[in-house]
């Protein structure tokens, strides 16, 4: 009995510092995205306070809205241990198609496009092919489809424009409605991960897919669902883009959101290895990414060098916010 008691005491003693270290890692991972955003906000304020005027805040929020929606879709897929390189292209195609059919079909056209991009997302995940290779190929297909569909022209909204423009023209606290819509999506996503069986199963799948399979988790169905959500949110991002621009084209607003969307998810704390995401922190990730062009412009960096500075910033922030500890594999 004495030996067993000593063993239990030793295990408890060892578990306490280990639990403390894991708790500190978890808390650090939770607070890192808001801290990074605070640093970015402070840097922008020091460089040019005018960017934080009501007008500047409105512009940043409008820019962040589609990035946040794409990032939430990306975070959903990352959480199950995959990656979606095609969701920005899905959004672009959906934006073009919506601009074409909105004048004739109105609200029903919006529902049809959202259904279409959701199905595209689900189909992408249906084939049992590594997600990186599959979505990279799908990216090319969808970009070509966007070019062909639009005939490389800009499509301007005409009738029924108010059905989407309201998302941009209606402000709540200097912030466009499109951004608040994205925040509401983040809240719903957070609640789903915390309180639903499907959400918890997705996280478990991302942490250890083999264990999830042995536990009876419907892995394939959840992966298809995650990609379907990514496609759907890409469609909603298209609404935000169309509301802001009033037009759609294969080279206009929304044509270069793949990197910002992935970056916002990662800066917001989503793990590239799967099984870890906090939709509320993705909000801070999207805002941080949206402020990057302003910071670059305030520094006086030329447009030809902005991509370089942007890329270096993303690498630095992701490197600083990625959890590293013994036993955790950085993929």
UniProtKB/TrEMBL annotation:
CC annotations in GO: plasma membrane
Alphabetical UniProt keywords: Cell inner membrane, Cell membrane, Membrane, Transmembrane, Transmembrane helix, Transport
Compartments reported by the entry: Cell membrane
InterPro entries the record matches: ABC_transp_permease
CDD domains: TM_PBP1_transp_AraH_like
The organism's place on the tree of life at top rank: Bacteria
Principal location: membrane
GO molecular function, one term: transmembrane transporter activity
Pfam families xref list: BPD_transp_2
Membrane topology: Multi-pass membrane protein
Transmembrane feature ranges: 25-46, 52-73, 85-102, 108-127, 177-195, 224-243, 249-268, 280-301, 307-323
Name listed for the protein in its UniProt record: Ribose transport system permease protein RbsC
């Amino acid at each position: 009995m004495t030996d067993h008691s000593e063993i239990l005491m030793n295990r408890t003693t060892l578990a306490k510092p280990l639990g403390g270290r894991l708790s500190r890692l978890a808390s650090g991972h939770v607070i890192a995205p808001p801290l990074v955003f605070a640093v970015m906000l402070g840097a922008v304020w020091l460089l040019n306070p005018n960017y934080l005027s009501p007008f500047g805040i409105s512009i940043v929020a409008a820019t962040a809205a589609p990035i946040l929606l794409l990032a939430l879709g990306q975070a959903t897929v990352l959480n199950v241990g995959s990656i979606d390189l095609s969701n920005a292209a899905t959004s672009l195609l959906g934006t073009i198609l919506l601009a074409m059919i909105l004048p004739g079909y109105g609200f029903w056209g919006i529902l049809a496009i959202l259904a279409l991009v959701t199905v595209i997302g689900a189909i992408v995940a249906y084939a049992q092919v590594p997600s990186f290779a599959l979505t990279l190929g799908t990216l090319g297909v969808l970009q070509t489809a966007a070019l062909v569909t639009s005939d490389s022209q800009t499509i301007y909204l005409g009738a029924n424009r108010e059905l989407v423009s309201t998302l941009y023209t209606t402000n709540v606290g200097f912030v466009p409605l499109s951004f608040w819509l994205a925040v509401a999506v983040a809240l719903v996503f957070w609640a789903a991960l915390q309180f639903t069986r499907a959400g918890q199963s997705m996280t478990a799948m991302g942490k250890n897919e083999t264990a999830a399979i042995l536990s009876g988790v419907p892995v394939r169905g959840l992966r298809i669902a995650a990609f379907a959500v990514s496609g759907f949110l890409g469609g909603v991002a298209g609404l935000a883009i169309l509301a802001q621009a009033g037009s759609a084209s294969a080279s206009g607003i929304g044509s270069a959101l793949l990197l910002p969307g992935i970056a916002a998810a990662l800066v917001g704390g989503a793990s590239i290895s799967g099984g870890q995401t906090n939709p509320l922190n993705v909000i801070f990730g999207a805002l941080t990414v949206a402020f990057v062009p302003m910071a670059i412009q305030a520094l006086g960096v030329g447009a030809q060098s902005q991509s370089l500075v942007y890329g270096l910033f993303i690498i630095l922030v992701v490197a600083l916010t990625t959890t590293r500890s013994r036993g955790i594999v950085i993929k």
